[in-house]
Amino acid sequence: MSATPYDLVEDTIGGGAIYLDLVGIGSSYESISDSRLAMTTDADDWGWPDGSDNSVSVASDGFSGDIFDDKSNTASDFTASISGLIPSQKYELLVLNVIKTNDYDFSWSRGQKGNVLEISEEGIGGDAPAIIETEFGEESLTFSDRTHQHNGAAFDADGNLSTTGDQIIDLPNYLVGGDYIRFANNARDNSPYNAYVEADGITTWYLLVDNRLDGPAASRNSPNSTDPVIGGNLQWIIDDGWVRVNTGISPNGLPDYTGVDEGGDGFGPGQGLNQFYSVYSMTGDSVTIRGQGIGGSNMMSLVTQGEMITVNNIKTDGIAVVEDNGAEPDSYAISIGYFSSNEDGFISLRLGKGQGGRTELDGIIVVPPADLEIPIQKFIASSDVVAPGENVTLNWTISPAATSATISPGNLDALSKTGPDGKGSLELTPKMNTEYTITVDTPEETGASESVPVDVSLIGSFTSSSALINSGEETTLSWVVREDATVFISPEIGESTSENGQGSLQISPSETTKFVLTASADNEEDTTSELIINVLSGQLGGGDFSSPVGGWNYEFNGDVDPISVEWTHDNGSDAWDESDFSSGAPGGAEILDEGIENFLRIQDTGDPRSHGFGDPSNRKFYFIKDLTNVLSDGYSPLVDGITMNFRARVPVPGNDLPLDDHHSSDGSKTDWTETGDGYAIHDGGKGSFSIRDSLSGQLISFAISTESVGPGGDYSGGEGLTMNRLNGINTSTDVDSNDSSGEENLLPIEPRVWNNFWITIEEDDSDTGTHKVDIYLNGSNTPTTYYVTSGNGSDASYTYIAMGLGATPQSGAVDIDFFNIKEGIEVPTSSTPFQISDINYSKDGMSISWPSRDGEAFLIERSEDGVFWEEIDDSYPANDEGEITEFLDEDIFQYRKILYRVSRAED
User: Fold this and answer.
1) What is the Cα–Cα distance from 600 to 593, expressed in whole angstroms?
2) How far is the C-alpha of 321 from the C-alpha of 683, rounded, in Å?
3) I need a labelling partner for 559 at 20 to 30 A (CA). Which of 196, 496, 589, 875 fits?
4) Handedness of CA 312, 313, 316, 322 (dihedral sign)
5) CA distance 98 to 8
6) Phi (first) and psi of residue 546, to 5 degrees
């Protein structure tokens, strides 16, 4: 890839944008389009985090254009000085970012706080003057005339803002410790009102705005649980360049919020809440707050933070300069705020370290103030494609001397939406593909125009009222499509009607089903959207075992997405992109059916990162189920005993069920192993089926293993069911399949067919290992006993069970039919009902038979009338050589009729 051409960047940004490229540390770059402007690049303490290389570098990194490459170094800053600007003018600055993969994004962190020097207010009237405070934090007073206080926000179980919610979010870190302004709450309805606030240098300002404000309506009728409506009385927030902040701290991808405790008596985040603020930001050495002019609400708040700039969600919020470039890098420009040039025409810029990815900067873009002599400097849309029902924001920069400005279609008045600096914006909701045109008149020119196209995608959403239902229940499929789209849903449903682009229907699938909505329109390619409905079919028994008395403490039946039944995969042993086999990175997790079987298939193909897929790349899978509310209070499963039951197999290719190719870490791709690829114990005792006890700090796992393995760094635990090695009587790290110390533990089985494992785990009192493991296979009442050493691997602070394929070096696949657990040691019984199965009369007496297991004892009784029972034997032993016990009653000849009753003897 060659360096991004300067004219492509400038044309994409518009508004007279000037691109300044990175050419090397300490070197200057002179703008090609405006030779008056230049930028000198510098950097601070560049090098690897361990300090092994402290040289400063601007590297080409495989490209012909120079790139400042941070590599997530926690000590690295980028600094630049821009010269040749008009003195004492405010410029918008953007950074051009290189993003190497389609799944890559990152944020920059905040820096040191800025100090507020002064505040001057106009329109305050008789209200209390604003107060400059320091050290913003929980319980900080909100106003100069009230006892309201700032607190962290709260969300309900569905992730919606709620004053009584139990999902508590602390005040954002970037606010804590900063200087802030306590305005008078009574100033909320003052109009006009202005407050000029100045800091001791370039800083990031954060504006907190009451969610209830509806600017266009000049009221407080906006819902408390959603953002305020910006415009009207609040149009200045848009015009001055304030940007909504979203750092990912809120659930469901919502932007950042803070709470207000109007009673001033709540302590801690989320406590005593009455209202919520939305957080906006901009950068500069000063800001002007223009008030809200709306009574009955909470006045705004203003907080300042560091000299470094906070930039988030490059790909989501940026302007695409180079996008969808296949395997090659993309480039996005994102605004970092408005900066005032000093009296010499200089702006000094500093950006902080990268977070969560490589900070790779290709250049800086300078957008000058509006030019009086140019009717239209910029007219762009926030996105060139929006979903049906989604808004698009039109942004423009026109001559401040304009006498008229309209946008068509609709002949919309743009001049009233334009600030004195010539910049304005308008939010619209296109229903069809639309070309918007702005037409501007100035005293020197009439009819100047520019256009921007905005397309509306065929599908906006395809959702269900519930993605998890019981067999026989209904759920509602709903969709939003473009109004001219035709909808077809498979399987079986067919063409479906929509009204004004919206439609719904009720369904009751008998099994977990993937529904595909196809939207079609004339002269356009079809678009599809997929939706999986998980159907709980219920597990009627343990396969070849009967369920224990009282049932299981927890059952996973393999017929639903684990996430839908409160399994999580947000841990260090997981990199699942939440795709199935038909989408996303290679491999995946999906509910499949084979005849009457519904089961979960998980496939780890190796390391897709070496094949152009960024994390989450499906290089490992690890689902965790929290047992805190499943087990009894204080129960320690690896001390008090635990019983596990799962049915699983290693899948093989050759049928219609999906298995992707191996994707090796060396970049090669090969067919999936013909004889299947199982898994092994790894990373301190993790496996495909695990129990982790947070109270004892121990982990014991099992995995179905094959001798045949995939390419790369894969290894095997043998052919069968492998488990923790025996390696002493103390918990150890060295219990994995590839550890050299200790003894291997392997139950030989055929791994490629369904096997039903019933496993009891209890502490070992023989001083052989840490635990004794009894494994019952496929309905047998006779266990195979192993002694194992517990591992110390962990992926959560609580007690949990886990299932998956959680090691990057390995590849493998597993099918899971069910996974159940129960407190204590439960010895299994055959699925054959416990009842007298055979009665035979002979000259020797009456012989009766029933199913049993070794070690049991039975109470045998007889009766003539079924009311009064005579005890024959209260502890008759079970047959120790088979699964059927027989008893001969010789004393029968005085009876005309005999009833027999057999029950398990009590201890």
Assistant:
1) 9
2) 43
3) 496
4) positive
5) 15
6) -80, 150
DSSP bridge partners of 280? 207, 244
Identity at 253, one-letter amino acid code: G
Structure tokens given for 97: 């970012």
Please tell me the predicted confidence (pLDDT) of residue 285.
80
Q: Give the pLDDT score at 713.
A: 56
Which residue ranges of the chain lie beneath pLDDT 70? 1-4, 23-26, 42-79, 98-113, 202, 306-317, 324-329, 337-338, 350-360, 534, 536-543, 711-714, 830-833, 906-907
DSSP 614: P
- In eight-state DSSP terms, residue 562 is G
Whether 179 and 171 have beta carbons less than 8 Å apart is answered as no
> Which pLDDT value is given to residue 337?
67
At 77 the pLDDT is 55
For the chain, report the end-to-end CA distance as a whole number of angstroms: 78
CA distance 232 to 209: 14
pLDDT, position 782: 80
Residue position matching structure tokens 């750092």: 247
User: What token pair was written down for 17?
Assistant: 């944008």
The pLDDT value recorded for residue 156 is: 92
Tell me if domain 6-109+314-367 and domain 459-530 are identical in fold: no
pLDDT of residue 755: 92
**CATH number corresponding to 459-530:** 2.60.40
Distance (Å) of CA 453 to CA 13, 349, 376, 559: 15, 34, 17, 45
Instruction: Look at domain 6-109+314-367 and name its CATH class.
Output: mainly beta
Q: Are 673 and 660 in contact (CB under 8 A)?
A: no
CATH for 376-455 is 2.60.40.10
DSSP assignment of 787-827: EE--B---SSSS-EEEEEE--TT--EEEEEEEEEEEES---
pLDDT in tens, 137-171: 888 999 999 999 999 999 998 889 999 998 999 89
Cβ contact 360:100 at 8 Å: yes
Q: Phi-psi region for residue 123, left (φ > 0), alpha (ψ -120 to 50) or beta? A: left
Query: What residue spans define the domains of the chain?
Result: 6-109+314-367, 116-304, 376-455, 459-530, 554-573+624-823, 838-904
Specify the residue for token string 């005040």. 171
Pairwise CA distance, residues 136 & 301, whole Å: 11
Please list the alpha-helical segments (H only) found in 244-362: 314-317
CATH architecture of 554-573+624-823: Sandwich (2.60)
pLDDT at 574: 94
Q: What is the pTM of this model?
A: 0.49
Sheet holding 527-536, edge to edge: 468-470, 527-536, 513-520, 486-490, 494-496
Q: Which helix (H) or strand (E) holds 9?
A: helix 6-13
Residue type at 685 in one-letter notation? G
Integer Rg of the chain from CA: 35
Q: What are phi and psi of 11, to 5 degrees?
A: -65, -35
Q: Say how far apart CA 619 and CA 592 lie, in whole Å.
A: 21
Instruction: For the chain, give the mean pLDDT.
Output: 85
In whole angstroms, give the CA distance from residue 876 to residue 184: 87
Helix, strand, coil percentages (3-state) for the chain, rounded to 5, are 5, 40, 55
Taking the C-alpha atoms of residue 544 and residue 522, their distance in angstroms, rounded to an integer, is: 56
Residue indicated by tokens 């790349």: 617
The rounded distance, in Å, linking the Cα atoms of 62 and 432 is: 42
Between CA 383 and CA 392, with CA 388 as vertex, the angle to 5 degrees is: 30
Q: What is the pLDDT of residue 9?
A: 87
Strand partners, 791: 699
C-alpha pair distances (Å), 212 with each of 175, 221, 222, 224, 277: 22, 6, 4, 5, 9
pLDDT at 27: 72
What is the C-alpha separation between 804 and 589, in angstroms, rounded? Answer: 10
CA distance 106 to 71: 11
**Helix (H) / strand (E) containing 201:** strand 194-210
